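[step 3/7] fold_predict: job queued, chain A
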Amino acid sequence: MSDPVTEPKRQISIPLDFPVDEKTKDGGRTHSSLTMKRPRTKHVKKLVALLGADFPAKLFGAAGTGKAADAAADKAAAEALALLTEPERLDGLTDILADMCGVAPAVIDDLDPMDLFAVGRATLDFFPALMSAFESQSS
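[step 4/7] structure written:
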């Protein structure tokens, strides 16, 4: 049996500071939180398609410790952010996040920027090693 402390998270509840109204065929509903499910292979494949086939190698090549690894990780993270914020890629990222949260892409588009940041942080929470790498970069 797995240690509960190290067992991977299967889903994360994300409270929204600014609830989002969604129009549905039955009328509508208000989302005061989102439940994000753990990314699946289909999400990783879509993300790799958005970032380019060489991105995983750059990211994993940045693994390690020391100034060179820190610089490589910073560069890989900056490249990923730059790629994902290109207009032609934004809708693809929205689709991935919406699918992971089980909502329509319009819900993700209507999030307050602070809540969108919380969704991004929740995505990293599924991967503690990545999270600690990014946190060490910001210190």
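[step 5/7] annotate
Residues 129 and 135 are 10 Å apart (CA to CA).
The longest strand covers residues 11-24.
exit 0
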